[in-house]
Design goal:
Layout (H helix, E strand, L loop, with lengths): L4 H31 L4 H6 L3 H24 L2 H27 L4 H10 L9 H14 L37 H52 L1
Helix pairs in contact: 1-3, 1-7, 3-4, 4-7, 5-7
């Protein structure tokens, strides 16, 4: 029995896209890690870039493995590809469930980490500089209690009354902790959506890989029978 060329090249094309996705994830993750410029607050409150780099590398390797297995009709590579996808699918599913259940705990975890930096005026100069940079970018003041996190309110907290974020007085009242949590919650929803889309692609990849694996097995069995 001949191998279905359509399935073979569909699996190859799928894995090529998979490999390209890994390249993009890896590139973006490295850019984010480099562009942080060592910001202490970003590293404390928004971890996970290193994990994204690891995920990008794994996806690239899997994509390469699947491409080679499909184009060379190598059953060993296809089986390894299927098992790897299945394990990642299970881990992704577990992570998605835990992420959905633990979404309400994100605020508590972030606030606990940020509380360690208060009072801000007692922190080293590099930490204070990072906080002030964040305050200018996010238009906020303080990280847990607001302006009271500072003994002396810095200029980065001051705002113009015409600014929509300047709700009262001449100082931003919203804390940077709340801004960070809001950004994290938005990113989590996007991440869950991406994870669902990737999971669907993985299911198709596993189905194609197993169908091709079985067809190659039947082809090899038929060739052995004919030679015998």
């Amino acid at each position: 029995m001949a191998v279905n060329k359509c399935i073979k090249y569909l699996l190859f094309f799928f894995n090529l896209l998979f490999w390209l996705s890994g390249c993009i994830i890896l590139g973006v993750s490295i850019y984010l890690k480099v562009s942080k410029d060592g910001n202490t607050i970003s590293n404390t409150a928004i971890p996970g870039v290193d994990l994204m780099i690891a995920i990008g590398v794994i996806i690239m390797l899997l994509g390469f493995l699947g491409c080679c297995g499909a184009i060379k009709e190598n059953r060993c590579m296809l089986l390894l590809f299927f098992i790897s996808l299945l394990l990642i699918f299970i881990l992704l599913l577990a992570a998605g469930i835990l992420g959905a259940i633990g979404e309400s705990k994100v605020k508590d975890v972030v606030l606990e980490e940020l509380k360690k930096l208060t009072p801000l005026s007692d922190q080293p100069q590099n930490v204070r500089d990072d906080v002030e940079t964040m305050q200018r970018e996010l238009k906020c003041c303080g990280i847990v209690k607001g302006p009271s996190d500072w003994t002396k309110i810095p200029d980065s907290c001051r705002c113009n009354s015409t600014d929509p974020d300047c709700k009262s007085g001449a100082v931003f009242q919203e804390t940077c902790g709340d801004k960070i949590i809001s950004l994290l919650e938005q990113h989590m929803k996007i991440a869950l959506g991406i994870a669902f889309a990737v999971a669907v692609l993985m299911i198709f990849g596993m189905v194609f890989a197993m169908v091709l694996y079985c067809q190659i097995g039947r082809k090899n069995s038929g060739a052995t029978t004919t030679n015998a």
